[in-house]
## 1
Amino acid sequence: KKKKNCSFVYDMNIYKNLNKIVLQVRRDILRMVHANNSGHPGGSLGCTEFFVALFFKIMNHNPEFNLNGENEDLFFLSNGHISPVYYSVLARSGYFDVSELSSFRKINSRLQGHPATHENLPGIRIASGSLGQGMSVAIGAAQTKKLNNDNSIVYSLHGDGELQEGQIWEAAMYASAKKIDNLICTIDVNGQQIDGSTKDVLFMGNLKDKFLSFGFIVLVEKNGNDIEAVCKVLKKAKEKTKQNKPVCILLHTEMGNGVDFMIGTHKWHGIAPNDEELKNALKQNKETLGDYQI
């Protein structure tokens, strides 16, 4: 049976319950990257509220996975290196068993470092992580829905460092020119990338003005790690669809959010915590919905 929005379980005290899921997802992320001393915790932690809001409140999706996704909203992760948060939320929303998270990055696992399709992991529609490509794919899916008179929405997520890729702007021109108005692209604006701050590596200027000039409707949310604020801006973005323009959300987050020693630096972009750091980080995220053990 189709589960619209996956929010029916959390009708009472919705934001309190969503925050409980946020805390659990953070624990999942930390344990997954620690277990193999490999992965990308910083961006995953920073985007946790976005993923939880999208999958547990906003998006009309079906955990009984159908690759084609007819008559349901679709999500494409362009910055595929933040796979830990994606896998955790897919498991916690019913796409596959939570215990499978313990196989992250192991040989023959369905949960590789970057999401891949060859093992048919439910919820994954494209192999991603080659930065710059996700918006093009999302536009193609959105245009297909329009051609098929499918009124569902296509969502995508991108890193702000990823905007340095030229293909992003080619795709943005196309989306505007072809009036792809069932598309919501969210940019994780955390100001960090693997080699340092985005300003130091390659300053992109005023992102709002850029996307406006490319013909997007642009929403800015400064509190990207506040679950209520994220839900509200995603809801507002939905209301802005079907107006002959694609929609862009500039979501300001903190890389490493929820773990005090990971915040405010690019250091944790792709480094796993050691045993003592894991213990410290888990103490900062105590509320759980039912841990798994690795």
## 2
Amino acid sequence: MILLLALLSYRWSQGTLPHGGKSVIRVPKLIEAPEHFLSTAKGFSIDLFADKLNQPRKIAIAPDGNVFVVLTRLERPIKNQPHAVVVLSGFDKAHRPTVRSTWTKDLDYPFGIQFGFGHLYIANTDSIIRWTYAPGQTAPSGKPELILDHIPAKGYRNHWTRNILFDSVFHSLFLTIGSVENLDREDSRRAGIERYQLDPTGRIVGPRESYASGMRNPIGLAIQPGTGRLWANVAERDYEGDDLVPDFLTSVRPHGFYGWPYAYIGNHHDPRMPHKPELERTTIVPDVLFLAHSTPIDVAFIPEGAVVTLHGSQNRSVLDGYKVVLIPFGANHKPSGPPQDLVTGWLPKWSNREIYGRPAGLAVMPDGSILIVDDWGGKIWRLRRTR
């Protein structure tokens, strides 16, 4: 798989792309997993941190070490989808949570979650709210404060996700907004990342800024240590065959254009859209390409590089993704090689339909271990170094 990724990345970088082909819808089927079904790269081990969670998606580590989990809508047709945040606390000797508390159930398609300015921030699909937060707190002390409203709501299938992230010095807040359609001309606020300036109390001041555009569905956000640079995962367009269009991870250039809906991977025109030559020529080539439809959800930096969860394909004849990968970075703070498998096993080797789960959210614990959310499986896994 790594060699294939390297070969495809080379072809794409040289301007040689696979042809579009017949599109296949292959929705996975969740089945019960056996014991010890996950495998890790050498130097790592994985164990179960929490289970029996109702559709966890994103997580954040509170200043006191408690784990806040966003429970929210998934692709699975389940009634009474949760729109809540729960707190995992009361850790035992193995540092597994023994207490679960409900922070709130009064949310609207929540996704992004951040701590800052003595508050807990949550991004609904159409607004950002916050509560005051003190270490040890597992329930709110009052009603939330509205920080931003009139955000374009929902979107194409799962493009309701609104992620948020503070910059490295907490002077501004980034917000992701996905597209309404798979491929179409849309409102300028769609398919991109916005930036908002903050005052010293963490409230938004001044007008919104379009920070990046042409991103069909930006999902994961992370600030790179040492550079303060913003990185983003983007799920690209569907229905162009198995190998188009590649999803990607990229450093985000301020006011950069990344192609959607007219082009991709630089100046490669999408034939389903009219030509926009001047705009197509400005399309930025992403830093890291993933196999098409693998659906990167979250990204986090560790000393070795960037960790990315690949939620898995539903628009491909042969399933891909369903794993966690590591993109190594060099001394120049840039990717130094293709994605490497870090955790695998959610997609059994014998299967092209049945799965054991789908990795989604990420969080790095104070001790350096990595929490990985399996949203379909309702679990959180803990990845640790063994060396």
## 3
Amino acid sequence: MSLLLPEPEGFERQADVFEVLYQKMRAGAVVRGLVQSVDFPDSIPTWLITFPDIDINGEVIGLVPESETGLDRALMTRFIQQPVNVQIMGVDRDNGLVACSRLAAVNQLSDRIEFKEGQLVTCSVRAIKPNPEGKRPLLTLDVGGGILVDIPYADARISFTKPLREQYKIGQLVTAKVTKINYGNQVSLSLKDARPSPWDNAKFRRGQIIAGTIARINNNNLVFIEPDLYPGILGIAPYPIRGSLRNRQKVKCNVAAFSAEDKKLRLRIRPQGL
């Protein structure tokens, strides 16, 4: 005679994972996945994703081929270990595989989003990528639902002297301002315009000794220096008579003049070691 034992305290019976995925597919629902790797079945770059909200035990692998990511191939690897929205396109229970499309999910969610010029939008940082049209990289933001917008360096940077990868972390939430609405509800964004000017909070006194980093040196022997205290501000100093300088070099300076209203900071570089 077998005894029917009570279930352990706190036990929760799990729904059949494949049945849940079938239901999501039939409903055309958007599902959250997590990109685990990029593989190349039949030489096609393909995301392998898991479903942390549905498949606790990791029974199922989702496949998102390059054409269904909605991304340039160069961006696919940058999404490894990042969450993505997908629609379920097919379920193969026998092999534990699910065909998915991020592109279909983004298109569905984009229909629900409307922007207004001047609007502040909470976004997440998804990637920092090369700019094919310039030397400075682009910051890629998710403005909601997986809709990606590239921000030019000038509208993204906080500091003149630190690379973007040191200024932003993948997954970080940021506030951007809608500066323009283009055809098809495509938007232009600026992070710089969503923040107060760094000059608003800057305070310097004549004779004060500060540390800074050289942003650039122009042909007129003027040195542009970003103070460590207030990133985003550039002070100007004459090139010293002795010694040599280079971009991104740390220096100490004396404050010669300062006006927040006029956005003016005049500096004199101190000899090294002083």
